[in-house]
Amino acid sequence: MIISSRKIRFLFMSVIKTEIYGNSYIGIYGFATDSFCFFGKGVPQKKAEKIAKALDTKKLDLTIDSSQLVGIYVVANSKGILLPKIIDERELDELKRKINGIEIGVFDTDLNAIRNNILVNDKIAIVNPHYNKKEEKFIQDVLDVEVVKSSIGGFSTVGANNIITNKGIVFNNRISEEEKKRIEEIVGFKGEQTTANLGSLNIGLSSIANSKGLAIGELTTGYELARIASSLDL
């Protein structure tokens, strides 16, 4: 069955299709928890506000080493936020003034694109298997979650190629059925496998999502969007 984008808007009122700077990989510019939507400074304010509204969160602007690509560098849940070591003191101090009540950790790792390498919600983090024991412990301490080292569908970049919230998980289309069942047992709920942005396996980088809403790249088809929104229980 083909589902049009127009019909999707009626089915899932908390779901929007959009782009940033004409780029459908909107996840490179932002990242969301159930409380905050983090955007790179300079992202058009109306666009950022539209996404934050769909996700029912507070909008928060920051940069990482003067870069707007916070959706690659930052990962967070309701308990903590991990920042790469390339963040400068001015940026870190500004973030500390804006955010209270959660742990802030500057992660000393060579895998600086933290969001690409960590798939996390409030209970569990599935992380790039190339992280060492010390790095694994740091992730666990800052985000206060169980940490599981695993690739998904052949990708070590589990955050770039998959989506997780506190309500659901979406897998990239290369995952095997056996692997899918294993990850579902780990996270505690079932998910669908799909693509985004007209066949892209980078579904994490195509989206900004939390348990209340979803923003997805403009090129995403109605079929792809329906599978993602349904799997996230929206």
Molecular structure report:
This protein is an alpha/beta fold. Helix content is 30%, strand content 24%. The protein contains nine helices and 15 strands. The strands form five sheets. The chain has a three-stranded mixed β-sheet, covered by helices on one side. A three-stranded mixed β-sheet has the order 2-3-4, sandwiched between helices. A three-stranded mixed β-sheet has the order 5-6-7. β11 and β12 form a beta hairpin.
Please give the radius of gyration in angstroms: 16 Å
Strand order, sheet with most strands: 1-15-14
Strand content: 15-25%
Tell me the name of the CATH class: Alpha Beta
Number of strand elements: 15
The CATH homology group name: L-arginine/glycine Amidinotransferase, Chain A
Helix content: 25-40%
Q: Per CATH, what is the topology?
A: L-arginine/glycine Amidinotransferase, Chain A
What's the end-to-end separation, in Å? 19 Å
SS-based class? alpha/beta
The H-and-E topology, N to C, reads as HEEEHEHEEHEHEEHEHEEHEEEH
Q: What composes the largest sheet?
A: 3 strands, mixed
Number of domains: 1
Which second-level CATH architecture applies? 5-stranded Propeller
| Molecular shape | globular
Number of helices: 9
Task: Return residue spans where pLDDT drops below 50 for at least 5 consecutive residues.
Answer: 1-11
The mean pLDDT is: 93
